[in-house]
User: Which sequence fits this backbone?
């Protein structure tokens, strides 16, 4: 467990050096990279450790964006709003997790997917608080330069990513992580040996939500304007899955790498193929699943193993 | 067994790597000299895709026309026009990102605004910081322009300039209209215009018996329409995008809901609305910022309105609507401003735009202090015999408002 | 009067929803695959009906004869060539694979057909029936009738034919079916083909009623989800019950609490059903 954590720390440290590159657009991409990293790492707790196919990421993200946004329009400061978002996401998702994670397989997948729909429509209809379909403007007086602003949001997102990574490493090394692995392998058996599976699953769901919520909050402040169909976009639920499949399920280093690779692909495809980028993305997903079902990490592992075999 | 699996994997990986490599091919780079690059972030995919296609048609028509004339002349030298498109997937934050990309990566000289009010507003925070003059072709909400920005200009008048004349003409020609039912898509522009309608109705003594909004992506309006029918309003006012309005109108016919006045915004200005509905589009009224029946003698590259309509028909084989015209206008205005400034310096062009006072094929163009156009009277029109007929303003009127939508 | 009208609307709409969902339900029930490409297949069917009516004037219900085999072939091949390779993989993989396929098909449709909304408008229009003040549009009645016939045919196919019984057997107990000598792979492909054929036919019928655009696929898919969970998986009668239940909830919800809450209600109902009664209105317990 030690070595992957070191790799993860090194990776994060490298990402943190990005502002040296200096370009505001590079920083924007870097901020998105950190955000995707948070998505992938958080999803990995439920999807990788626990083995439940969750599509709830977009729900957490939108929830976080709107909680922070609404609190700030009511006059809260940014740190306070983000802290409140963290706690609210953790508690809210833990409670929901206790109920939803009783379902398995497709049923859980669909319930988590519906969560996105329900939250989106609730926000849409709570016009007085959220502005509904008119969207929400988040006031943040900033007199910093273009670059200063970009660096600020980059580091805000980076810190959230670092915290997520720390949390994930802590979970995987703890009794909780062991319990989650037991549940993934055989839930009934785990239950029978006296593991409080409901509690474990509920905590896992809460932990997988809290930093995604914070990321949503930072994002909302960063873009100044959010509307329900933007932040409760089902693609936010699918992306971390693709990233994790790319990087290798269950491996924190793998999923962060997956997030970076995915972002790179997305950027390149989006930029060069205006009319057909979503189709190309679909093609990549299909190829990946058919030919590399265990992610890019497995490829390295295989080659490596063959190398040692010959030696 | 293991080896063959491995080689299959290696081949697959190679294929993916190749694919990535091919995808990552060089972006098209025109020579930086003698070209004016204008960035256009558009929602080419996602729910707003049909709108993006319209805007793109308008921009392309202008660019083709400008380049056919040898380009834009700046201080005696001709510059070709190139429009750089980026798809923001109907996702507002992505529009912000696209705008920054266009400025910092593609090094565009100027920008067209993103589609609609929400995205245009969000993206304008970026263009303002980089001080890039931006012309928004389809942003009408005054909130977009009330941010104190200096580099943002828009060619749509505020939403109430659509509903006020509409209410006035209905009141004048159909004094029996006492009750109006308003149904709005729960989305930025459709909801905003419905709220303006509610205000206009109340100000003119028309009772609003029904005001509700439907969710984006609603597949069936029959329950809501039955409810409206039971209230028997004389005026039914529905907002949404083309798909919503097609469905709502079809279901009104299905449910045999009739009213003296039925208004829909923003579908009827589009040819596909009329094509898709056939006879049931008859007598549906609407309002828009521009109409092909207008007759202006412009000083811009397109000249007369009829000239623009003819060019558009030749290129796309269809009638232009206000979205396409406004997009083309934005191009033409940049051209005028650049030629006036005699430079492609962003600040000089910005000042030329701010000072602009010119008649175009679209109508007289003059921007208010906040950057929103304030020189236009948007026309009210009605579908009569399968064609949109202007019923207001007086100057370009083609017929009278007919009552009775069956 | 309003109440009667709303109920009649809901009954008709419910049959259409059932028609949208039934292929999806079949694939989910038999293959244990959530087929996210279902919505786009419906739209493709709608384009087929629209195109043929536009250019040759063939009425949509005749197009069904062509659509069913064509889409069956598409589905059969998709399953044989692609899905079969990962059919034993976890839920996540098959789900994500169909998501990728859906991105491809949807993007292709936007590329070739443009995202503009089309509408298949019959000339002359079929009009509406008015019975005692309650109005029912004829095109919906026709679509409903065909939807019922299609579901009836499927029911017969599953119950009476050899292949159909094999499909049902695989759905009930895959391992036992294998022991009985059923070729599971080809049954999977047939079931997926049937699902695709039903999607295509649903699309042809929906073309009469809804505007057509690649962008509507997610709305169809969303309805299919809810209908399946409400009605129970893989059963013909379950889809009908789920469809009508959904339409009733939406219709009554729209009138009582407002149209913008109709979708919220239906998804809340879905989550409630998943938790309290995952087997659906008519389904058997213990089926996953």
Assistant:
């Amino acid at each position: 467990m030690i070595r992957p954590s070191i790799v993860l720390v090194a990776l994060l440290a490298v990402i943190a050096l990005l502002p040296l590159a200096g370009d505001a657009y590079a920083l924007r991409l870097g901020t998105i990279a950190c955000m995707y990293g948070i998505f992938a790492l958080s999803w990995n707790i439920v999807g990788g450790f626990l083995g439940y196919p969750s599509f709830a990421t977009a729900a957490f993200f939108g929830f976080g964006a709107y909680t922070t946004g609404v609190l700030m329009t009511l006059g809260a400061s940014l740190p306070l709003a983000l802290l409140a978002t963290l706690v609210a996401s953790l508690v809210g998702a833990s409670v929901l997790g206790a109920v939803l994670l009783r379902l398995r397989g497709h049923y859980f997948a669909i319930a988590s997917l519906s969560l996105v729909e329900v939250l989106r429509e609730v926000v849409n209809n709570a016009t007085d608080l959220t502005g509904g379909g008119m969207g929400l403007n988040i006031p943040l007086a900033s007199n910093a330069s273009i670059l200063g602003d970009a660096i600020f949001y980059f580091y805000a997102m980076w810190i959230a990513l670092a915290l997520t990574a720390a949390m994930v490493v802590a979970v995987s090394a703890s009794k909780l992580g062991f319990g989650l692995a037991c549940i993934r392998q055989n839930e009934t058996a785990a239950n029978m040996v006296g593991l409080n599976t409901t509690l474990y699953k509920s905590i896992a769901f809460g932990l997988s939500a809290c930093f995604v919520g914070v990321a949503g909050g930072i994002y909302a402040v960063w873009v100044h304007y959010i509307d329900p169909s933007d932040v409760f976009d089902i693609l936010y639920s699918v992306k971390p899955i693709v990233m994790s499949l790319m990087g290798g399920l269950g491996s924190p280093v793998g999923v962060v790498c997956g997030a970076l690779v995915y972002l790179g692909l997305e950027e390149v495809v989006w930029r060069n193929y205006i009319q057909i980028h979503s189709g190309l993305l679909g093609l990549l997903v299909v190829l990946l699943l058919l030919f590399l079902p265990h992610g890019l990490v497995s490829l390295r592992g295989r080659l490596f193993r063959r190398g040692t075999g010959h030696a | 067994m293991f080896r063959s699996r491995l080689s299959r994997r290696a081949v697959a990986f190679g294929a993916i790597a190749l694919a990535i490599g091919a995808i990552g091919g060089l972006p098209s780079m025109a020579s930086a000299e003698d070209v004016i690059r204008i960035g256009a972030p558009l929602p080419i995919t996602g729910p707003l895709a049909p709108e993006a296609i319209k805007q793109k048609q308008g921009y392309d028509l202008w660019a083709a026309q400008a380049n056919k004339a040898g380009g834009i002349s700046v201080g005696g030298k001709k510059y070709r026009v190139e429009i750089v498109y980026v798809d923001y997937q109907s996702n507002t934050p992505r529009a912000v990102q696209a705008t920054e990309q266009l400025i910092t990566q593609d090094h565009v000289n100027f920008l067209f605004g993103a589609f609609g009010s929400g995205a245009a507003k969000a993206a304008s925070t970026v263009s303002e910081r980089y001080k890039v003059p931006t012309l928004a072709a389809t942003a009408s909400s005054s909130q977009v322009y009330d941010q104190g920005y200096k580099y943002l200009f828009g060619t749509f008048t505020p939403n109430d300039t659509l509903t006020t004349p509409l209410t006035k003409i209905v009141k004048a020609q159909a004094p029996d209209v006492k009750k109006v039912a308003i149904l709005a898509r729960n989305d930025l522009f459709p909801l905003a215009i419905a709220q303006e309608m509610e205000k206009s109705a109340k100000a003119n003594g028309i009772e609003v018996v029904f005001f509700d909004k439907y969710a984006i992506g609603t597949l069936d309006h029959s329950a809501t329409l039955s409810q409206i029918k039971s209230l028997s309003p004389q005026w039914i006012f529905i907002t949404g995008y083309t798909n919503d309005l097609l469905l709502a109108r079809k279901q009104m016919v299905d449910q045999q809901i009739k009213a003296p006045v039925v208004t829909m915004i923003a579908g009827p200005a589009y040819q596909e609305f009329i094509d898709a509905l056939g006879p049931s589009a008859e007598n549906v009224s609407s309002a828009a910022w521009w109409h092909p029946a207008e007759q202006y003698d412009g000083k811009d590259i397109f000249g007369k309105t009829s000239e623009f309509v003819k060019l558009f028909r030749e290129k796309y084989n269809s009638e232009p609507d206000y979205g396409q015209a406004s997009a083309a206008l934005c191009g033409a205005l940049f051209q005028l401003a650049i030629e006036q400034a005699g430079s492609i310096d962003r600040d000089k062009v910005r000042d030329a735009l701010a000072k602009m006072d010119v008649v175009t094929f679209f109508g007289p163009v003059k921007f208010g202090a906040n950057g929103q156009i304030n020189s236009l009277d948007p026309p009210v029109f009605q579908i009569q015999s399968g064609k949109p007929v202007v019923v207001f303003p007086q100057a370009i009127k083609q017929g009278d408002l007919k009552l009775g939508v069956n | 009067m309003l109440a009667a009208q709303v109920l009649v609307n809901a009954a008709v709409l419910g049959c259409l929803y059932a028609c949208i969902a039934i292929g999806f339900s079949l694939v989910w029930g038999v293959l244990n695959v959530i087929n996210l490409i279902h919505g786009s297949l419906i739209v493709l069917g709608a384009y087929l009906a629209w195109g043929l009516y536009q250019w040759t004037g063939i009425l949509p219900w005749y197009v069904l004869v062509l659509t069913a085999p064509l889409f069956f072939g598409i589905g059969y091949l998709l399953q044989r060539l692609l899905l079969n390779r990962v059919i034993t993989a976890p839920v996540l993989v098959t789900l994500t694979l169909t998501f990728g396929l859906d991105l491809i098909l949807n993007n292709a449709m936007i590329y070739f057909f443009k995202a503009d909304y089309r509408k298949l408008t019959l000339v002359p229009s079929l009009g509406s029936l008015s019975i005692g003040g309650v109005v029912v549009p004829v095109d919906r009645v026709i679509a409903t009738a065909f939807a019922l016939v299609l579901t009836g045919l499927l029911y017969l196919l599953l119950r009476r034919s050899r292949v159909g019984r094999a499909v049902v057997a695989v759905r009930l107990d895959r391992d036992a079916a294998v022991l009985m000598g059923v070729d599971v792979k080809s049954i999977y492909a047939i079931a997926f083909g049937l699902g695709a054929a039903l999607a295509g036919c649903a699309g042809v019928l929906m073309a009469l009623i809804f505007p057509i655009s690649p962008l509507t696929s997610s709305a169809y898919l969303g309805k299919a989800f809810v209908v399946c969970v409400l009605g129970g998986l893989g059963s013909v009668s379950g889809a009908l019950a789920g469809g009508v239940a959904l339409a009733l909830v939406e219709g009554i919800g729209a009138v009582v609490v407002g149209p913008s809450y109709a979708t919220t209600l239906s998804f809340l109902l879905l989550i409630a059903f998943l938790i309290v009664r995952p087997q659906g209105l008519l389904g058997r317990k213990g089926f996953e």
